[in-house]
Automatic annotation (TrEMBL):
The Peptidase S9 prolyl oligopeptidase catalytic domain, residue ranges: 416-602
Protein name as it appears in the record: Peptidase S9, prolyl oligopeptidase active site domain protein
Alphabetized PANTHER family for the sequence: DIPEPTIDYL PEPTIDASE 9, PROTEASE FAMILY S9B,C DIPEPTIDYL-PEPTIDASE IV-RELATED
Record-linked InterPro entries: 6-blade_b-propeller_TolB-like, AB_hydrolase_fold, Peptidase_S9_cat, Serine_Prot_S9B/DPPIV
GO BP terms, alphabetized: proteolysis
GO MF annotation terms: dipeptidyl-peptidase activity; serine-type peptidase activity
Length: 625
């Protein structure tokens, strides 16, 4: 008998029923900007296309599928732009003889000069006022370069690693960050006063992976360089700390005072042209992200707009703060006008089909939040099957609308199709998730297969008491795919099956094959006799008998480099040897994130037929929603 009876999915035009086409979930992002002209990438479809907007004229036009280039003078060149895009630095040559040309970009006039700096660098950063350049060399130092005098004015040694590098607006300070590692338990913050030649360094203990390292930025300075800001979770909540730079005078020790007393999470922050601090935070609810402003004059926080996506990070362009937003509709680019204090969507003329989501209800299961969706025409007297959706990560988060990450937004589309086909859907955050503080995330250490499973079981049990629920299927991707299987194996009386998409099935094997995996932090190291009890606690293979007579779908991308497809086939083999009948689906040319719309549609069609009585269903076509 063939041990690997894989359901290989090859797609031709007649693969899907005539009434159904593969669906897509298009997102928008700023691709390039020059002056008031902005090129926008609409991606997530078979063929990405572009829109060009003029913010001054407040007009947008579609420009087709060709990749735009707003800087044709630098075609096939490596270049770095200043914040206002008025200067460009172009490197020529390689290695120790690499040199740099500085371009001044003005309307109808481009000038060039070769600067007096030679050497190979990792990156270069302009000061916001365009007076200095910070070169990050390959030899462990920063070089501060004065543009006006065309000369290097300071060399600064880099101590330890240097990520999240921020060069202050006038080039008088440099801040950088060295995350904690599995071997080094301290994260290190460094602030360099370039003019005075003083370096401030402070450390924070961290015995988990460094969650701050997953953010977009860690530092910023006020435009007048009077205040310095950085992210920290040292008091249990990821939030902003502020230092008054004019009071520093060789002070040693940890810098900064916490800005906000309440325990909400802050992730993105930037300054507008009005000098106010703008940031995204989940101040109203762990699952609702909003854009806020902070005014130093009255020290008040003001809410500006809800339902903001936190990735990609909001950005400043002239008088606008530009950000993505989604409230039950496809994510779209919006602007906040700092002069009018008003919010507006960009006037895009995109022809993509509308894709509204059903309105979900945020549920609080004793501090574990989720979003519950009910079918159209929901009747509380009738019974419906339930999908419990579990995100990956595990340091990620679900969302009431389309997720900030397009990879999860695609699954939001699948879940909406299931809802339209008569499913209840619960998108659940479990221990380890993002947006709830450090303890909620780090509680997973030593508790994989325990607290995460408990959160899934408890939330499902609560819903079954509140509603008439038929068959229940946990479903997830990556870590969520593991958790779906482990929840089924841990509480088989509660669940009727599970769907795992590119999920881990055996941590012992995964980490043995990749001993540098960050996931070893959950088990206090790589597999050994000392921590075997933690790996056993997380094991699905030790509980295979609990999967008997359950409907199990195992999905993997054949080119997944994050969770090798052997993780999927290994569990499939073990279940077959036990006389069980799981379904295994292997998608060609797919990695850890599914991107082929036909594969995504097929996955939806596999899941929608799982419950008894649903065998004839197919996922609703996106254009009919």
């Amino acid at each position: 008998m063939l041990r690997h009876l894989l359901l290989l999915v090859f797609f031709i035009t007649l693969t899907l029923p005539a009434s159904v086409r593969a669906f897509t979930v298009p997102y928008q992002r700023v691709f390039q900007q020059r002056g008031s002209i902005m090129a926008i990438d609409v991606y997530g479809e078979a063929d990405p296309h572009y829109v060009q907007c003029d913010l001054d004229q407040w007009t947008c036009i579609e420009t087709g599928t060709s990749t735009p280039n707003l800087f044709p003078e630098f075609t096939e060149k490596q270049y770095i732009l200043s914040k206002d895009r008025q200067l460009a630095l172009v490197s020529e040559g390689y290695g120790a003889t690499q040199q740099y040309d500085l371009y001044t970009l003005e309307a109808g006039d481009v000038t060039k000069k070769t600067i007096d700096f030679i050497g190979e660098t990792k990156r270069a950063i302009f000061s916001d006022d365009n007076t200095k350049i910070l070169f990050v060399t390959l030899y462990g130092e920063f070089v501060v370069f004065n543009i006006q005098t065309n000369s290097a004015i300071k060399s600064i040694p880099i101590v330890g690693g240097a990520s999240f590098i921020r060069f202050s607006p006038h080039g008088n300070y440099v801040a950088y960050f060295s995350p904690s590692t599995l071997s080094g338990k301290d994260r290190v913050y460094t602030l360099v006063d370039v003019a005075r030649g003083h370096t401030y360094t402070w450390k924070e203990k961290n015995d988990y992976w460094d969650l701050l390292s997953e953010e977009e930025k860690a530092f910023d300075f006020s435009p007048d360089e009077r205040h310095f800001f950085y992210l920290s979770d040292r008091e249990g909540t990821q939030t902003l700390y502020m230092t008054r730079l004019w009071l520093l005078d060789g002070i040693n020790g940890r810098l900064g005072k916490r800005m906000f007393k309440s325990d909400f999470t802050v992730n993105n922050f930037l300054f507008g042209a009005d000098g106010l601090l703008y940031f995204t935070a989940n101040r109203k609810s762990p699952l609702i992200w909003s854009l806020y402003s902070y005014d130093f004059r009255d020290q008040l926080v003001r809410g500006l707009v809800d339902d903001v996506l936190y990735w990609p990070a909001p950005q400043q362009s002239g008088k606008y703060i530009i950000f993505l937003r989604s409230k039950n509709e496809l994510p779209s680019l919006y602007t906040f006008d700092i002069t009018k204090r008003s919010v507006a969507s960009l006037p895009l003329t995109i022809t993509a089909s509308p894709f509204p989501l059903g309105a979900g209800k945020i549920k609080n299961f004793s501090g574990r939040y989720g979003v519950l969706y009910t079918p159209d025409g929901y009747d509380k007297k009738k019974s419906y099957p339930l999908i419990v959706w579990l995100h990956g990560g595990p340091h990620r988060q679900t969302s009431p609308s389309f997720h900030s990450y397009h990879s999860y937004g695609t699954y939001d589309g699948i879940l909406e199709h299931l809802r339209k086909n008569g499913f209840l859907v619960l998108k659940l955050d479990y221990r380890g998730s993002y947006g709830y503080g450090k303890k909620f995330a780090t509680d997973l250490k030593g508790n994989v297969g325990n607290l995460d499973v408990k959160d899934v079981v408890d939330a499902t049990a609560v819903l079954k008491k509140e509603m008439k629920i038929g068959e229940v299927y946990p479903m997830g991707t990556s870590y969520g795919g593991y958790l779906a299987l482990r929840a089924l194996a841990g509480k088989p009386t509660l669940f009727d099956g599970a769907i795992s998409v590119n999920g881990v099935t055996d941590w012992w094997t995964l980490i043995n094959n990749d001993p540098d995996s960050i996931f070893q932090v959950h088990f206090n190291g790589t597999p050994s006799a000392k921590n075997k009890v933690l790996y056993d606690q997380a094991s699905i293979f030790l509980r295979l008998n609990n999967l008997k007579n359950k409907k199990v779908i195992l999905v993997n991308g054949e080119e997944d480099a994050t969770v090798p497809h052997r993780q999927t086939t290994m569990l499939y083999d073990a279940l077959i040897d036990k006389g069980m009948a799981p379904t295994i689906i292997s998608y060609e040319k797919e990695g850890h994130i599914l991107t082929n719309s036909a594969n995504i549609d097929d996955l939806c069609n596999q899941v929608v037929k799982l419950p008894t009585g649903y065998e004839g269903k197919v996922c609703v076509q996106a254009s009919t929603l």
